[in-house]
């Protein structure tokens, strides 16, 4: 499932991902299991409210690498094609 982040448009990080989910532009969300709960819990709740499926990724470093950045990230979303 992580390949969807590599191949298509995406939002990386909490703020960008929250904006995408709130705007109805997210098709699938990814959350790193080793991220802080106070960061991921509100994001997961927002995804549930907006009916966006959430997938879990083992580490922030792995999620960041898949997104093409050199640092870890707590959340990312695959965006709908426009």
Brief rundown of the structure:
By secondary structure, the protein is of the alpha+beta class. The protein is built from four helices and four strands; from the N terminus they run αβαβαβαβ.
Low-confidence stretches: none
SSE series: HEHEHEHE
Q: What is the total domain count?
A: 1
Rg calc: 11 Å
Please name the fourth-level CATH homologous superfamily. Answer: Ribosomal protein L30/S12
Largest sheet: 4 strands, mixed
Strand order of the largest sheet: 1-4-2-3
Would you state the CATH class? Alpha Beta
Provide mean pLDDT, rounded.
Answer: 94
Number of helices: 4
CATH architecture: 2-Layer Sandwich
Shape call? globular
Strands, count: 4
Helix-strand category = alpha+beta
* Percent range for β-strand residues: 15-25%
Helix content: 40-55%
Write the CATH fold name.
60s Ribosomal Protein L30, Chain: A
- N-end to C-end Cα span: 20 Å
Describe what you observe in this structure.
The chain has 82 residues and is α+β, with helices and mostly antiparallel strands. It has a single domain, classed as 60s Ribosomal Protein L30, Chain: A (2-Layer Sandwich), CATH 3.30.1330.30. Helix content is 41%, strand content 23%. The chain contains four helices and four strands; from the N terminus they run αβαβαβαβ. β2, α3 (37-49) and β3 (54-57) form a beta-alpha-beta unit. The protein is globular, with a radius of gyration of 11 Å. The two termini are 20 Å apart. The mean pLDDT is 94.
Tags for this model:
41% helix, four-stranded mixed beta sheet, globular, 23% strand, 60s Ribosomal Protein L30, Chain: A
